[in-house]
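Example record used in the benchmark description.
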Amino acid sequence: RAGTADASDTGARIGWRRRVLLLAAVLGSLSIFLLARMLANEAHLAADWRALSGGSLQLVGSPQPELKPYLDRELLAIAGPDGAFVEFDVLDMTHSSRWMSDLGMRRHLDQSRLVASRALNAGQVTLAFSDGSRVTVPTSPRGYVSLGATFWLLSAFGLVLYLLGWIVPLVQSNPRNLLYALMAMSQAVQLLVSAVASVPALALPAPLVLHEPAVRTLLDAVTAAAIITVCVWYPNPLPGGKVMAGLVWLCTAAFGVMALHLDMSHEWAWSQALLLGQGALAIVLLSWSYHREPHPFVAAMRRFSVVTVSTLALLSLAVAQMPAMPVDLRPSASAGPIIWSVFFASVVMLMPFVARSQHIMREFAMLAGISTVATSMDLLFIAVFSFSQFTSLTLSLFLSLGVYAAIRQWLVNQMMGARTLTTERMFNHLYRIAREVEAKPERAGERMTELLRNVFEPLEATRTNGRETQSRVTGNGAVLLVPLPNLVDAPTVKGMVALRFAERGKRLFTPEDARLADRIVEQLMRALAH
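Model output (structure tokens):
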């Protein structure tokens, strides 16, 4: 009866979690559908444009009869509802001023996008061409087909990250998992903003035009503040950690208030300084924590942080050179927000699985990082060395793929804890231990523990109670529990061996390590049986 009651209690706990997750999935899917419906009903000017060498736009096609006589003409300006014209060029089609370091370019982009958005909402757009001709074109709803494939891909990625933000705290409720939920939700919203910005259109909705740069930066800053808070809490609480975490959140909130409600003259510089400062602080705190206790999870997170902050610094350096680029190549910098959002979101998504060796997610995160590096190098080659677009793109791809091929295995080993053992080394260990156990059966437990020490090189290896028949990883990859069989009398379990911090705290235990430990025990028992 007691066992039945425990089983029913466990089933009830799992049942309500499933219902909460199902409700969250329904709400997330409904939110994306409502967002898509809102964008589909937005006023839209159906026209296809081509960028010219000087940075202007050329009308190359449109299903609207009013624009048929104006094909192949160069667009000069767009008039708002008040009749005032504002210049409109290829840079205004990028839809994002988040990654524009030049204040004049940022303000011109915001002004032109705001005028275009208000004209679209008014129901008609007046276009002025370089030959002096003008035409007023009525707008129509965009429709779902015109949203584009990128919108649906980014929305789907955001939905997956949103659900993961629910799953992690539902599986195990603790403060750090709640902070992870905040990170996942922030990056899910970031992906949705990128999805909206990817829709082909003359302009974004007016509210997003006004606050899009600040919202993007604030979402990344909130994610970084949550990461810093976790660093000072887990796994080794740092002295004064609460004060440092509070100051970080205070700075993040102050930046949010100033960015959303004040006209900051150097908003981009402050944004990058805040994010890079938070990243550098996270690396320092993780290094301090690892110095106090060489926890492998801290080492893995420090590597993640170094890679992420270095990528952000490289992208910031490349974007800062955009004013020196040719006008017609400046829109290539618009890939920055999407690529960075995908890369940072993939890193956040990978965090709960760092000790579970999810190969697909790991490769996706690595490729997203390499794509960010390639984009940054492309911009740097164009701005600093004045390479042509083809030469710059070819060289940046070649170098990025070369770097990826050269350091891929190192990244796998360092970040994921992948490790290989030679057959000769394993055979020598098994043979020696089997001979010793055969000679002195009473020392079988000690010899088994010694074998596991030689294979995994943990900081600690202790005997614990337990009756499990298979090895398992606990503590986010910090501990490997291996059942200790009775190697002499019968195949029964006599407790377990707890191995803490693989390779002297340099890496995490993975499911492959658990399977390897089980195979070691199995082979040792076979050797003794013969």
